[in-house]
Each structure stands twice: as structure tokens, then as C-alpha cells.
Amino acid sequence: MQLGLIGLGRMGGNMRERLRAAGHDVVGYDRNPDISDATSLSDLVDKLVPPRVVWVMVPAQVTESTVDELAGLLGEGDIVIDGGNSRFTDDGPRAERLDTRGIGYLDVGVSGGVWGRESGYSLMVGGAAEHVARCMPIFQALKPAGEFGFVHAGPVGAGHYAKMVHNGIEYGMMHAYAEGYELLLASEYVTDVPGVVKSWRSGSVVQSWLLDLLDRALDADPDLSALRGYADDTGEGRWTVEEAIRLAVPMNVIAASLFARFASRQEDSPAMKAVAALRQQFGGHAVKTG
């Protein structure tokens, strides 16, 4: 099928290539003209055959204005997909505004980072069943092969809610590895910390893709000396903890991992170096060096 894709950065650009490799017609727009297939949002819409599907993959702070501009360009029967890291509470009002124009809306939590082009993306979708069904060829092409990697999580807002919880869990998992790494460094018994990490990669109950990425980071920089112990948070961890408070759900590990990121901005920490390295490895996120 044909898809308009707005935002061709680390995630969007790789998604375009994966979709094209699967035989889909993708018209991409980016502010960088060197990688864009269209000169403007209006030009992008003009290049699509109605009824259109347009996937927005831009930073959260510009998603609202992008969707509002699209609302004035699209028409009845079209669908807008927000695949960025929007807050789930933004989805309902956004869908209602688009619905007054006959435009459908789906929110899609996307996980896979810079590796998704080859390995596929985990997709968590919120929205009406008929809109999900229409976009399934796109979702099938983006997800990994096999039975896992996709869910229609519920109505509008459910996709971003699921991705919020996913990222909260990610915070906790990364920090558990990071604390273990710091304890190994401090121990007078262990002389090969990277080797211990490698020993956990197979046959261990703590093996995971995140552990593989920590091992990869240690291969490149065995003591992570090129990194500062500083890790940003992009919002999802805070929102997860806020929801835990609202619903009175105990969330000790995820809350502690979020607060540890705040602590990382106060002093250099070996544990936070590990978190920074993992974020760089799986998502291509910027790190602070020196």
C-alpha cells in the first residue's frame, strides 16, 4: 500500500527503508531536503492517492502542530498515525479534532531503535478496529517475522500508554544491569568485568537484548571511560510513575531508576555511564563525553 511518512530521522528513515524493501510505496517528508521525497507537507499530501494514510514520526514537541497542519490538508476517509513518543492523554483530544473532519487516528508505540530496520519493530497500536485493519499491511511489514511484535492494545490512547509502560520497564531493566556493573567494578574479587557480562549472555536467566548491548558497549570501551555518567529522560518514565501514583500501583523499581537518572545530573556515576552507553547502543541517543 501507499504511505506518507513525516520525519526521516533515526527511526523514521529506517522505517521507510524497511517498508520499501517489503514492496510498499513510501513518500517521505523531512525538513532536510537531501533525504525528503516531498518539498512540504502539502506536497506530500498531493503525492498520495486518496484515501491516504500518513504516519507522523517527529519529536513530541512538534507532533501537535504537525497533526494540526495535516488536518487542514487531508480529507474524509484519510488516516493519521502518530508513531512518536506522545503522551497518551494527548491522543483522545487529537482524535476528536480529526474526527470532525472525517479523518481517522491511530496512536502507535514503536520500539526497536536503530536496529529495527533489520530486526523489525515492536508495535503497540491504539484506535478503532477498522482503522487498524486498513493499516495492517504496513504494520505487518514493520513488525518482526513471526507471531510476536504487534498488538492492537485498545482504543485511542492505548498504544502510547503501552509504550509508556514499556519504557518504564526499560528504565528499571537498564538500571539493574547498571548497578550490577558498578558492583562488579567495585569488587576486589572480579578482575574481568566485561568477561562476566559475556558469561551472562547465554544460558543465564538475565540474558536479554539489553545485556547484549551492554556487552557491545564494553567491547568498544571496556571501562566506559569515554562517557560521562549522565542520562537524560525523555518523559515516558515520569509519566509511568505519575500513572502509578494515580492508580495506587506500587512501582518501586521503575521510580528508583527514574530518580537515579536525576541523580546522574549531579555527579559522575559508573552506573549512569552504563545507562548512557545502553541508550546510545539501542537508540543512537546522544551521549556526553569528556
Secondary structure elements and pairings:
Blueprint: E1 2-6, H1 10-21, E2 25-29, H2 41-47, E3 53-56, H3 60-71, E4 79-82, H4 91-99, E5 104-111, H5 116-119, E6 122-126, H6 129-142, E7 150-154, H7 158-186, H8 193-199, H9 209-220, H10 236-246, H11 252-264, H12 270-283
Helix pairs in contact: 7-10, 7-11, 7-12, 9-12
Notes on the structure:
This protein is α/β, with parallel strands linked by helices and 290 residues long. It has two domains: 2-154, Rossmann fold; 163-283, Orthogonal Bundle (N-(1-d-carboxylethyl)-l-norvaline Dehydrogenase, domain 2), CATH 1.10.1040.10. Helix content is 50%, strand content 12%. The chain contains twelve helices and seven strands. It has helices at 10-21, 41-47, 60-71, 91-99, 116-119, 129-142, 158-186, 193-199, 209-220, 236-246, 252-264, 270-283, and strands at 2-6, 25-29, 53-56, 79-82, 104-111, 122-126, 150-154. It has a seven-stranded mixed β-sheet with strand order 2-1-3-4-5-6-7, sandwiched between helices. Strand 1 (2-6), helix 1 (10-21) and strand 2 form a beta-alpha-beta unit. It is elongated. The mean pLDDT is 94.
What distinguishing features does this structure have?
elongated; single chain; 7 strands; N-(1-d-carboxylethyl)-l-norvaline Dehydrogenase, domain 2; 2 domains; 12% strand; alpha/beta; 290 residues; seven-stranded mixed β-sheet; Rossmann fold
As a whole number of angstroms, the C-alpha radius of gyration is 20 Å
Please list the strands of the largest sheet in the order they lie side by side.
2-1-3-4-5-6-7
The fraction of residues assigned to DSSP E strands is 5-15%
Distance between the termini: 47 Å
Q: Helix coverage percent of residues?
A: 40-55%
Class from secondary-structure proportions: alpha/beta
Please write the string of helix (H) and strand (E) elements: EHEHEHEHEHEHEHHHHHH
Q: Main sheet?
A: 7 strands, mixed
What is the fold-level CATH name, i.e. the topology of the largest domain?
Rossmann fold
At CATH level 2, the architecture of the largest domain is 3-Layer(aba) Sandwich
CATH class of the largest domain: Alpha Beta
The CATH superfamily of the largest domain is identified as NAD(P)-binding Rossmann-like Domain
